[in-house]
Write a structure and sequence with these properties.
By secondary structure, this protein is mainly α. It has one domain. The model has no long low-confidence stretch (mean pLDDT 79).
């Protein structure tokens, strides 16, 4: 093996040191950029999660429409027969109340498609 002078060895080590220093600076900059990107992405994820929760509440949340059970429908049918035509006195005329329409009655009016 050939003898390398100490000056050449020092120059070689300095060149390696500069190369490694440049690589470290580049990696430090990349790490900084990636950390900033992570912070931005976490903000975007939080906004998207909130949007998803809002849509889930709108889509799957409790509804103001409550469907009556069959027992309630039969009770309402019996009550509706008694309430069919009532009159109330209003200042200028008499108003006739009509009974409420229930789902079963509405379904009767829908024509069945021939299958």
């Amino acid at each position: 093996m050939a003898q390398v002078s100490p000056e050449t060895m020092i120059e070689l080590l300095q060149a390696v040191n500069k190369t490694q220093s440049a690589q470290i600076d580049e990696q430090t900059k990349t790490i900084k950029d990636l950390r900033e990107l992570v912070v931005q992405l976490r903000g975007i994820i939080a906004n998207l999660e909130e949007t998803v929760r809002e849509f889930q509440r709108k889509l799957f949340g409790s509804s103001s429409e409550v469907l009556p059970s069959e027992e309630e429908e039969t009770e309402e049918d019996a009550d509706s027969e008694n309430l069919e035509k009532k009159e109330a006195t209003v200042t200028s005329h008499r108003r006739k109340y009509q009974r409420r329409t229930f789902r079963k009655e509405l379904y009767k009016n829908i024509p069945e498609a021939g299958l």
